[in-house]
Amino acid sequence: MEWKSLTTKKSIDLSSYLADWMANNPEDKIYIGCDSQNHNGTTTFATVIVLHQPNRGGHVLYSKITIPRIQARYERLWKEIELSAETAHEIMENAGQTPDFIDIDLNPDPRHQSNTLLRSAVGLIEGMGLKARYKSASNWSISIADSICK
Fold it and tell me: Could you give the CA distance from residue 31 to residue 122 in angstroms, rounded to a whole number?
């Protein structure tokens, strides 16, 4: 995936950027999230890394991809989970950092369709040794990803 800084819109090398950032900001937290939108015949995914600076705000890195339209809602939601998990894996393997949370755009309320994927998604994330946050928790990265993919 091609990564950019939301501030500058310039492409970055994710591994070296994160390693440098975290060396200079060791108290920062790393949150990952992904959201998607269907537009005409395509689906756009925005994967986001939020570098949260406690009591100071945050810094955002993102990757945006567009693929042929995914019709099935569950397939599109699961692709969001996969992209977030792949990003976390890349960060752990290549930048030597462990994300604090992967934010997932799924609802814990069984009245919502996305709930059917929640247990599988949380299992995947926890199986990687990470923590998942879902709707009703603080999902900064999902909100930012939503605005980027529109």
Answer: 15
